[in-house]
Amino acid sequence: MRIISGQFKGRKIQAPKQLPVRPTTDMAKEALFNILNNRYYFDDISVLDLFSGTGNISYEFASRGTENILAVDANFGCIKFINKTAEDFDMPIKTVKSDVFKFLENSKQQFTIIFADPPYDFGLEAFAKIPEFVFNNKLLEEDGLLIVEHSKHTDLSKLDYYNLSKSYGGNTFSFFEAAKK
């Protein structure tokens, strides 16, 4: 995987083969960040990266100037890899080894962007828990955004707080936000 833009643009990061991950493709990542770039100043936001895997999304935010990034994953190998990569690149990424749903249930911190990339084989019920926890526990700042990455074969449009989806190849990003007042 490579970093698309920012301070570390073009840098390649090689994740260990034994990690149970499916990194977001460069094409999908570039499209996502083009959308976000039109909405946010990256140095003014806070990011929660759920099911962070290799840390691919966290590195992209850090490269673009985001200083407040928290990556959460249940796999110790993933957390260890993210910590080492963040240290090697001097990136401000903090990590938490935790089941994502337990973390969401107990967290009191708010974020501008929450990005979740759960396993593509999640059932709709498991996918539905993500926006449920995020919005019921008020984990997004005002004008915050929840982005859930999933397979193009999964339809999240009936879930609460759903706004829109964008597909790139086999990847789809569904965007969720609180209703505007």
TrEMBL record:
Organism whose genome encodes this protein: Winogradskyella wandonensis
Name under which the protein is recorded: 16S rRNA (Guanine(966)-N(2))-methyltransferase RsmD
GO biological process, any: rRNA methylation
Ribosomal protein is among the record's keywords: no
Pfam family, one: Cons_hypoth95
PROSITE patterns: N6_MTASE
UniProt cross-references to PANTHER family, sorted A to Z: METHYLTRANSFERASE
Domain of life: Bacteria
Keyword Coiled coil in annotation: no
GO MF term set: methyltransferase activity; nucleic acid binding
SUPFAM superfamilies according to UniProt: S-adenosyl-L-methionine-dependent methyltransferases
Keywords: Methyltransferase, Transferase
